[in-house]
Design a protein that fits this description.
This protein is α/β, with parallel strands linked by helices. About 35% of the residues lie in helices and about 25% in strands. Helix 5 runs parallel beside helix 6. The structure holds adenosine-5'-triphosphate (ATP).
Length: about 325
């Protein structure tokens, strides 16, 4: 296991003396080459947890192990295993070029200068930024700056990468580039990636696993496809290649089918036999597709955070 977070806890003291329990005994695990989406509403405790993993916030209780090294007893070895881009691109100096920024971080991480330059250019090539290597960071677009920030965090070849809101405020193309890079790092280079995001479509595209926290505590964790499947129920989507008769529409209306235009509808079925009955009733209208309607991650989030599904489930 690459990352093991074991019951970490953190409270802050607010001005006036009141104590806020920001993170309550949060545990999670991540293997090499996997992407974990760490989700939760504003103030749930994501940033505090990620900062504890990065060693930037001292935990009150619990421990974090990175590649087996405990942050409490072998902090330097644990931190050597990780790279982090937290809260936008604050790890960049705007008046320096991408290469200079990467070399600067290499120096801090103890990477020899020559190796740092080669590694920097290799990382910039990976992101399609080699032509921008010698412009100052302030001249680059926000998406490019974010790519450079990720490159800087990767200069010492960490096994674990922490990304806090990596696509926040980026346009679609830039967000797509970042997501491609994250996928490549995990799938090709075997980096374990823990990311926080409020963008559920990003979490859905990238994540193998999700951990959902609310008020500092984990309320759901499991493989992304399993948590989505679990909420999917028995809804099916049918797509047609022709119009239905009034009688067929009346039949579907009785079944509470929801139409999306005239050629597609979603219907909840209560037994496998129902599926064949609907197919038979649609004859002779050609059916292009009939498939189970899988809940998206946004629906999962809304269900557990705002709905009544927060029973502490582990699928
Ligand atoms: P967001 O999605 O809004 O970034 P988050 O899930 O990252 O939120 P945290 O920033 O970890 O949440 O905050 C968790 C709780 O701890 C919140 O109630 C927040 O107000 C409180 N908190 C965070 N940092 C401090 C601090 N330095 N001092 C006091 N309270 C803090």
């Amino acid at each position: 296991m690459l990352l093991e977070v074991e019951a970490v806890r953190k409270s802050y003291r607010r001005r006036g003396g009141a104590e806020v329990l920001a993170v309550r005994d949060v545990s999670l695990q991540l293997s090499a080459g996997r992407i974990l989406a760490f989700l939760g509403p504003n103030g749930a405790g994501k940033t505090t947890t990620i900062k504890m993993i990065a060693g930037l916030v001292k935990m009150d209780a619990g421990d974090v192990r990175i590649a087996g090294h405990s942050l409490r007893t072998a902090g330097a070895s644990a931190r050597r295993q990780l790279g982090a881009v937290l809260e936008g691109s604050r790890n960049l100096y705007w008046r320096l070029t991408p290469v200079e920024n990467i070399e600067y971080w290499a120096g801090i991480r103890g990477v020899p200068r020559r190796e740092a330059r080669e590694r920097g250019l290799e990382l910039l090539r990976l992101c399609g930024l080699e032509e921008k290597a010698h412009q100052t960071v302030q001249q680059l677009s926000r998406g490019m700056q974010q790519l450079v920030a990720i490159c800087a965090a990767l200069v010492h070849r960490p096994n674990l990468l922490l990304l806090d809101e990596p696509t926040l405020g980026l346009d679609l193309d830039a967000a797509d580039r970042i997501q491609q890079l994250v996928e490549q790092l995990a799938r090709v280079n075997g980096v374990g990636i823990l990311l926080t995001t409020h963008q559920m479509e990003v979490a859905q595209r990238l994540s193998d696993e999700v951990v959902l926290i609310r008020e500092g505590a984990v309320i759901l964790h499991g493989p992304t496809d399993v948590v989505r499947e679990r909420l999917s129920g028995d809804a099916y989507v049918f797509e047609l290649a022709g119009n239905l008769s009034a009688e067929q529409r009346a039949y579907l209306a009785k079944r509470d089918a929801e139409f999306d235009g005239s050629l597609a509808f979603r219907v909840v079925l209560s037994s496998p036999g129902d599926f064949y009955e609907v197919i038979a009733r649609l004859q002779p209208c050609p059916i292009v597709r009939a498939s189970r309607d899988t809940a998206d991650l946004g629906a999962v989030f809304r269900h557990y955070v705002h709905g009544d599904g927060n029973e502490g489930a582990q699928p």
